[in-house]
């Protein structure tokens, strides 16, 4: 049993190396903090210019629906975009949340192993598909479908909702599955022991117990939906109006930023108002994240 | 309806929904692949886009891979470092909570915001212009929290016995991480990295305003890092495959843009599929090699 055995002596060089690498890794982690602060500072500095330098009132920005930035004087009202973003996100979540939770239940409770081995990779593949492909498929398949069967131009808020629902579905499913798996087995077994059917157990015991995790999943799906830019921009019609029906066109914060940012000059009121919309998106994302933290803090399981 | 009937109905609904999701994915992918694969000729894969019909996506395909490579080059050391710190060294105090909050926030940011930040910082303030390097750094911002999470998960899933045993033998933390824990976490790390690479490959919103929406014709004989026509040049605009699909649609100038976009979309999906499948296989193979499982 001869072989070279490296010494594990705690030499001072080893101790210094340990401290040094610890510092290096702390620096890497600190980089994340620096980056997010940098993003907040930079985007806000441009976004606030609309109100500070160009003297657009916040009330007008948030609640006026007149969007004529190339007029003189320029009319900056972002209400149609804000409402569009909210409507399309809400619609997407209404469709995908129940479907995702059903899929999560299948993956944890109901499906046999062979079927789980089909659905799980399918969900993972859904996550990996790029958003432009969703947008392009929406354009090629969904828009003509809506135009031919439901009327309107096909470019519609309905198309936006469906595309976003498909994009949010794998996110919600994955997180919901994780939170259902984290429940102690004893809950389920106690319920069966009392004579409940599987669905009764799911409905009355498991879902309420996993509620914080499920809500987290849904909010993460919302964050994905409200932040999606390209796929929505390709199918929603990009008209700054309040849609009167599902087949009407609409516009969202992300879609107007994508469309207009390249055509505006930095420093002008038009450009600054786009940055204000970006700042608004950032604020919404922050609010969603804080909400998730508050909900997770109340988790029992 | 008694409880047993409700149970049966609910089970049936859940089965239908799950089968529907799988069918949706299969038909979605199948439709796009069937529609687009016929355009993937060598001509299409190597030629640059043109203003008349018959252009290809050669430079865009190269740009997608090159940007992916550069991003991973920058992100993996930084992200793995951050992940090691959070998994091994971080005490349970306010600073650690702050880092975690920052990571989660960064991970949930809309990618268009990351692209706009890249526009402000890398393109304008650093005067890099629309360039490969600006795109790579923008993607790094987007990617860093993901790699950190992958690393942290992989390290946390290493059995604690390994860690405790090595520390009991008298190793320093860094020695234990370097020689025992990182190799044990390797399969999880590799799987995570390849899956992340698949996501980055298809990213477009962060690149529209950083790497640009055009690509110069590439002179393959040139390998300098600064010349505008070298494929390796860091300071040239570099439209990727995903951005190209978006641009084709938003401009609609080329007469055959639908066919090109179909082909490009099929190509993107194919690459993502390859990334996904190889991540699984490579991870499983590595795991079997390292743990000597049969």
Give a verbal description of the structure:
- The complex is a heterodimer of chains A (301) and B (294).
- Helix content of chain A is 73%, strand content 1%.
- Chain A has helices at 12-52, 58-63, 79-110, 113-128, 131-149, 157-181, 185-193, 198-209, 211-227, 230-235, 253-260, 269-297; strands spanning 67-68, 75-76.
- In chain A, α3 (79-110) runs antiparallel to α4 (113-128) and α4 packs across α6.
- In chain A, 47% of the residues are buried.
- With 294 residues, chain B is an all-alpha fold.
- Chain B has helices at 3-37, 42-46, 58-89, 94-108, 111-125, 132-156, 160-168, 173-201, 205-208, 241-251, 257-291.
- The model of chain B has no long low-confidence stretch (mean pLDDT 89).
- At the A-B interface, α1, α3, α4, α5 and α8 of A face α1, α3, α4, α5 and α6 of B.
Give the tags.
heterodimer; A: 301 residues; mainly alpha; two-stranded antiparallel sheet; 12 helices; 73% helix; globular; B: 294 residues; 11 helices
Terminal residue distance of chain A: 50 Å
Helix content of chain B: over 70%
The largest pleated sheet of chain A is described as: 2 strands, antiparallel
- In angstroms, what separates the terminal alpha carbons of chain B? 51 Å
Number of strands of chain A: 2
Taken from the alpha-carbon principal axes, the silhouette of chain B is globular
The unreliable regions of chain A are none
Coarse structural class of chain A:
mainly alpha
Beta-strand share of residues of chain B: under 5%
**Coarse shape of chain A:** globular
Mean pLDDT of chain A: 89
- Going by helix content, strand content and strand pairing, the class of chain B is mainly alpha
* Alpha-carbon Rg of chain B, integer: 23 Å
Series of secondary-structure elements of chain B, N-terminal to C-terminal: HHHHHHHHHHH
Chain pair with largest interface? A-B, 91 and 92 residues
With strands numbered from the N-terminus, the spatial order across the biggest sheet of chain A is 1-2
The helical percent of chain A reads over 70%
């Amino acid at each position: 049993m001869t072989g070279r055995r490296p010494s594990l002596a705690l030499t001072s060089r080893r101790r210094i190396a340990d401290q040094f690498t610890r510092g290096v890794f702390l620096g890497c982690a600190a980089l994340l903090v620096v980056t997010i602060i940098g993003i907040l500072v930079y985007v806000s500095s441009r976004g606030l210019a609309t109100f500070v330098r160009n003297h657009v009132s916040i009330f007008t920005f948030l609640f006026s629906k007149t969007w004529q930035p190339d007029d003189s004087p320029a009319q900056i009202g972002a209400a149609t975009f804000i409402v569009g973003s909210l409507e399309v996100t809400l619609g997407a979540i209404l469709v995908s949340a129940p479907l995702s939770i059903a899929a999560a239940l299948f993956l944890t409770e109901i499906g046999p192993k062979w079927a789980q081995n089909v659905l799980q990779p399918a969900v993972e593949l859904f996550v990996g598909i790029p958003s432009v492909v969703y947008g392009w498929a929406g354009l090629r398949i969904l828009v003509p479908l809506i135009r031919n069967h439901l009327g309107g131009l096909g470019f519609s808020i309905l198309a936006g909702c469906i595309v976003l629902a498909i994009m949010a579905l794998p996110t919600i499913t994955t997180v919901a599955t994780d939170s259902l798996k984290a429940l102690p087995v004893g809950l389920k077994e106690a319920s069966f022991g009392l004579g409940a059917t599987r669905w009764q157990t799911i409905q009355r015991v498991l879902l309420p117990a996993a509620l914080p995790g499920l809500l987290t999943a849904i909010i993460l799906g919302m964050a994905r939906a409200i932040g999606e830019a390209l796929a929505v921009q390709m199918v929603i019609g990009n008209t700054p109006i309040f849609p009167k029906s599902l087949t009407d066109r609409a516009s969202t914060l992300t879609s107007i930023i994508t469309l207009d940012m390249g055509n505006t000059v930095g420093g002008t009121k038009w450009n600054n108002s786009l940055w204000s919309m970006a700042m608004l998106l950032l604020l919404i994302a922050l609010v969603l994240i804080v909400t998730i933290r508050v909900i997770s803090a109340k988790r029992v399981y | 309806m008694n409880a047993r009937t409700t149970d049966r109905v609910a089970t049936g609904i859940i089965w239908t929904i799950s089968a529907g999701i799988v069918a949706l994915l299969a038909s979605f992918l199948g439709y796009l692949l069937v529609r687009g694969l016929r355009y993937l000729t060598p001509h299409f894969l190597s030629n640059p886009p043109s203003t008349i019909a018959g252009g290809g996506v050669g430079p865009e395909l190269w740009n997608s891979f090159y940007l992916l490579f550069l991003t991973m080059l920058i992100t993996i050391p930084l992200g793995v470092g951050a992940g090691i710190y959070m998994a091994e060294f971080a005490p349970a105090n306010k600073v650690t909570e702050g880092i975690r909050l920052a990571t989660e926030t960064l991970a949930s940011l809309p990618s268009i915001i990351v692209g706009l930040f890249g526009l402000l910082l890398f393109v304008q303030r650093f005067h890099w212009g629309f360039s490969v390097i600006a795109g790579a750094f923008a993607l790094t911002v987007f990617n860093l929290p993901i790699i950190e999470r992958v690393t942290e998960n992989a390290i946390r899933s290493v059995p604690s016995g390994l860690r405790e045993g090595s520390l009991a033998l008298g190793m320093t933390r860094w020695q234990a991480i370097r020689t025992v824990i990182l190799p044990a976490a390797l399969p999880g790390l590799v799987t995570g990295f390849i899956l992340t690479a698949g996501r980055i490959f298809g990213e477009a919103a962060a690149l529209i305003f950083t790497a640009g929406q055009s690509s110069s014709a590439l002179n393959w004989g040139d390998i300098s890092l600064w010349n505008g026509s070298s494929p390796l040049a860091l300071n040239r605009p570099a439209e990727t495959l995903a951005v190209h699909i978006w641009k084709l649609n938003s401009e609609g100038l080329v007469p055959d843009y639908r066919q090109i976009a179909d082909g490009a979309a099929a190509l993107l999906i194919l690459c993502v599929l390859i990334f996904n499948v190889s991540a699984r296989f490579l991870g499983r193979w590595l795991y079997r090699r390292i743990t000597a499982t049969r």
